[in-house]
């Protein structure tokens, strides 16, 4: 049976009252799903706020790595995902490819004990576990600079996975040398060695778009997410995580124009006027958009019926080491 959105919202609200459940939603979710979130935020905030939450069930509207991170940090919580949607960047590297990357560094004369791996939170739990086992740490777009600054104190080379853009953007901000595995650089000469992963959505933004907006609206500000290419971030007035972007943009004077380089759903609901999408192609994250109001309703219904859909389970060893890597981040 098909319900209207109004009916679905009523049913979801009724389940939220009846069950011990917290609905969590990332900023990139469709508007109608996002509005049902009890907890919202960027990746770091979602991980921390959900860890502190007391409900038995977490219904996570986002992508797979986010639900996995909640389960890792709070193994006793039951984590259900209305859609098992996988972030395209996170699926670019698994633990085997992580091991292959280490071998490439080893072949270039860098021993494992001289490598400190850092994984962006947008990665599979298996990669986080390998990073944890090797003494490494997780970072998010909002704390990457801080985490890398502290990590460098160990005097090791940083292997940064999976996002080459975030790794290089932070290196540029800090005046460090970086390279991408396979780009022909001498790996030994770099402080940060990045895996060649990227976000297909943030790859849509280009310098031509920035030039277009600056010509069309002199004085316009450009605000972008650090998953954009370094050429984009270097030409931006502000670079930040989703929460940092929201704060920056919503605090601008009403008549200040801004063009934003991140996912469509979030930018579209930010400000009624003077906010532009920094791309002529709609930058929608296909996997974030997979979750519908009907999926959220079905997930809650499945909990009520005692057979939760898409519940996250993680094997003990992976859980143990991924937790080490995530908790190192939270401790920092
Ligand atoms: P934030 O941590 O900034 O919310 O980013 C998550 C993400 O997937 C961006 O593409
Ligand atoms: Fe992953 Fe990119 Fe979607 Fe973020 S926008 S969830 S990095 S595919």
Question: How would you describe this structure to a colleague?
Answer:
By secondary structure, this protein is an alpha/beta fold. The protein has 3 domains: about 5-85 and about 290-315, NadA-like (Rossmann fold, 3-Layer(aba) Sandwich); about 90-200, PrpR receptor domain-like (Rossmann fold); about 200-275, NadA-like (Rossmann fold, 3-Layer(aba) Sandwich), CATH 3.40.50. It is built from 14 helices and 13 strands. It has helices at about 5-20, 30-35, 45-50, 65-75, 95-105, 125-135, 145-150, 165-175, 205-215, 230-235, 240-250, 265-270, 295-305, 315-330; strands at about 20-25, 40, 55-60, 80, 115-120, 135-140, 155-160, 180, 190-195, 220-225, 240, 260, 275. It has a 5-stranded parallel β-sheet, with helices on both faces. Helix 12 links the parallel strand 12 and strand 13. Helix 1 (about 5-20) runs parallel beside helix 13 (about 295-305) and helix 6 (about 125-135) packs across helix 14. The longest helix has 16 residues, at about 315-330. The mean pLDDT is about 95.
């Amino acid at each position: 049976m098909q319900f209207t959105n109004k009916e679905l919202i009523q049913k979801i609200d009724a389940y939220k009252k009846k069950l011990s459940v917290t609905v969590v939603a990332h900023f990139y979710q469709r508007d109608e799903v996002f509005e049902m979130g009890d907890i919202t935020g960027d990746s770091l905030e979602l991980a921390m706020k959900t860890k502190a939450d007391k409900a038995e069930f977490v219904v996570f509207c986002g992508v797979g790595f986010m639900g996995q991170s909640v389960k890792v940090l709070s193994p006793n919580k039951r984590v259900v995902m209305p859609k098992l949607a996988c972030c395209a960047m996170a699926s670019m590297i698994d633990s085997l490819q992580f091991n292959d990357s280490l071998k490439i560094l080893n072949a270039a004369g860098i021993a494992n004990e001289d490598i400190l791996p850092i994984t962006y939170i947008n990665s599979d739990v298996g990669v986080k576990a390998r990073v944890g086992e090797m003494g490494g740490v997780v970072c998010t777009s909002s704390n990457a600079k801080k985490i890398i600054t502290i990590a460098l104190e160990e005097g090791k080379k940083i292997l940064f996975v999976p996002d080459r853009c975030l790794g290089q953007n932070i290196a540029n901000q800090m005046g460090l040398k970086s390279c991408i595995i396979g780009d022909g650089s001498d790996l030994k000469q770099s402080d940060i060695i990045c895996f060649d992963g990227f976000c297909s959505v943030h790859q849509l933004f280009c310098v031509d778009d920035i030039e277009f907006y600056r010509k069309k609206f002199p004085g316009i500000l450009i605000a972008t997410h650090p998953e954009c290419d370094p050429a984009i971030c270097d030409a931006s007035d502000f670079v930040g995580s989703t929460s940092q972007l929201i704060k920056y943009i919503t605090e601008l004077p009403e008549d200040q124009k801004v063009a934003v380089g991140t996912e469509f759903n979030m930018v579209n609901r930010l400000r009624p006027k003077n906010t532009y999408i920094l791309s002529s192609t709609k930058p929608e994250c296909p996997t974030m958009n997979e979750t519908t109001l009907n999926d959220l309703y079905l997930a809650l219904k499945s909990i009520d019926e005692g057979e939760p859909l898409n519940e996250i389970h993680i094997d003990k060893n992976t859980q143990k080491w991924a937790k080490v890597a995530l908790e190192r981040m939270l401790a920092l």
